[in-house]
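Hey, quick one: can you model this chain's 3D structure?
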Amino acid sequence: MLKKTKIWLLQLTSVTLTFVTLTYSYQIEDLSKDCQYNVSETLGTMVTCYYGNKTTIPKLLNESRPYLDQESWKSLTVLGNSIMTIFPVDYFEGIREIETLRFHNTLMKTIPNIFMNLQQVNTMDFSFNEIEDMSAANIQKLGIHLLNLSRNAITFLEQDDLSWIPSVEILDLSNNMITEIPTGFFGPTRLIRKLLLSYNSLRVLTEHLFSGLETSLQELYLAENKISDIHPNSLSKLIELKLLDLSGNPFNLKMDASSIKLPQHLAHLDLQRTALQTLKFCSIHHLHDLEYINLHGNNLECTCDLVWVSQNLQLHNNFFPNYRHESSEIQCKNLNANTKNVSTLEPACKNLTRPHCYEDSPLSLLLQNLQVLHYMVEIRKGKILIHWSRVNSSLIYAFRISVKEMGSKGYFYGPVTIHSSSNSFTIESVDLKNVQLKVCLHTMLNDSYDIYTKCTFVEDESLTSIVGILAGIIFLIPCMIALILVIHYDRKHTHYRNSRERLLKISSASDTEDKGSEVYKQEVIDDIEIGVVKSQKKHLTEGIVLNSKDLSTSQVSVKFVSEENASPVPNDISIVDGHSAKNQT
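Sure thing. Here's the predicted structure for all 585 residues.
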């Protein structure tokens, strides 16, 4: 049974406090006698089993465990011999997870069905056996990331052989006898980023051979096969591929690198010992990420194409010194079959013009699309919302977004790299109040080179609103003052004009002895008094204003004269009958 013991010593003095571990022991008492274990506090438990010449293989643990007490090991390595082929179905009972599981030299023909008790395995290594069939049971649940089946006897691959490891990211099938891979074989995985198929017997790479790996595969090893026929589009769709090793394959005389459409983001290309005789500049000029190319072991003709290829590599290595590879110079053979370094051809090719490889190259078309790219940024509710029109181009490695605050040298946010298929991004921040930002979208051809950058300036909506309101208020103040003055003077002028018109009407009515004068009652007289006072201090020069309480309007006749003809005359009051009143003056 499992025993764990920890003894801690706590020593307290007047000066120091010491915390010391005295012992640490870990025992697996019920482990099979054919196995040994080693325990490290940093690495964990590592178990190695060697079964010698036994024909009956026991379980790893002799006693069962409740689930919470099941074992979790760093690694298990099983070593066998020529007669060991069968394992018990409950071989892993009592063990929950193993990070790295290795079976070497067991001479097993198939992967045994012994994994039903395991919950998780990160790395499964079945190399150095005699496995002929790579299918397995009860493994799909384990979440395997690395599967190594190299150095076995696999000859044929079935369509659904990978359905039991959909989580695998690194698959090693090198050093087998595989002659053909069925179309759609890699479809169930779609996560493989490193695929090793070197040292097999592959002859043809069909157009859809790597379907399912277009956006995941980064490293492809096909060295030392018998590949003599590659479909032009077999590799072109692997848009994430950065390393391609085709070394040691006997390309036929009708095929060279110019006939293969290589992925745009290749950085490492190995074509050594492929029987190449020519290499056209146009076949690799679009590889803007190319850092290293291996052409050793070929009988290349000395042409200016090789000079331009070499110059492109030098330009990249000078521009990105961190990626520089230590490699010898490209060599070629002249007409006399003498080997020469390509650099010796530079003077002869100096005055020649490089070929124009495409009428409209994919790169130039991409630049045209990026220049008219619709790009919009806004700040709303504590978020920076970034949108741009979708760009469909396999040349784009990724997008990068950077945000800087105006007047600041550092970044407000980022830079952050996002997938090339994206066309929007949202940034949440609590520091967006009253800020002005410069938000840039960088289109990347590789992880360090931006082919095009588009920036826009944006500020917090609250700041914009405040500024707009203040500006509106400042603009409206003089307008309101002017409007008030206009209304004031208009009303004053209207009142004065109405009063003057009334005076003129009353005067005219008195001069013609119109019988309707009695309609102008005391309120008319009151209005006239107010109008006279307010209109430039005019005053009446003839007549007497009576209080309406003293006399009735029917017994009073009042005569007015205009201001222009006014002259002092004796006051005269005539009391007449209201029905036959005549002017006595």
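One thing worth noting: The first strand starts at residue 2 and ends at 12.
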